[in-house]
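Recap slide: Sulfotransferase domain-containing protein, sequence and predicted structure.
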Amino acid sequence: MATELPIRSDVYDGPLTTSSIWEKFSLRAGDVIVSTPPKSGTTWTQIIVTSLIAGRPLSPREMGEVSPWLDCALHDPEESKALLDAQDIRRCIKSHTPLSGIAYDPRCAYIAVYRHPLDVHFSMRHHAAHMESDVMRVRYPGDVRLALRMFLDDELYGGSCDALDLHSIAYHYASFKKWERLGNIHFFHYADMVADLPSAVRRMARILGMDAPASLLDEITQGTTFANLKKMAAASDQRATGEPDFYLSANFFNSGASNKWEGQLSSTDLAEFEKRIRQLLPEKDAAWLLWGSRATPGLAEGTPS
């Protein structure tokens, strides 16, 4: 009996996403698809992957020139498709779409990256304030607790990450978790990447099937630390004519810190968050989504000291 494989069974279209472009896009052997909820380490992972492919550390802007967000509704997805179709190098494709909305090919590698959902929420709050489009600002009113209630209670766009509510993050995770038995579905956690970036870089090289020398892995690790990415972005900003775009500018790399909710949410708020995430995911999965490899069976026990 043939092994069951994922199929593209759903369409996720919203203010940020137009997943229907996947109907027209043809994958190639060796393609790397980086699919994450927004603000979960997408750009960081893309830079590591494209640097490994290039054989040298790339700047954020160099990465942006070769690894577009294919199913982004904020610009014409046909342009991203054309850019990727024209490439004769190994391709790295960005998406925020659940696995059921993107093409699957066993010859490709799928990297799904996750981050504590409250860190995602507060990071996106900063990001939304600087986006050229105001499509996300309605999700982040000045009242932090009102924004939290929207984050916890809403289930918008049928699982698409376009509203970046907690449901959409759990939904994205579950769509990939269902297929973790497949050898080309790989999970990373932002907290683990922060704690041990060299291991994350080495693992991504193995996923790409690369026998890279230790010197190159060390060079890419150093080049992709948060501090160095911010420096490279700042240097690009200085060379740019006019006001640099927020995406991939130094301001984009606002803060790689975790526990962004500290001092902003009460113990009652946190209890409501834990109650909601337990409704959305089994406890073991919820704990991993919060803390990565540091998670223990209970949610609270996984909290870093």
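Confidence is low (pLDDT under 50) at residues 301-305.
The longest strand covers residues 109-114.
(End of recap.)
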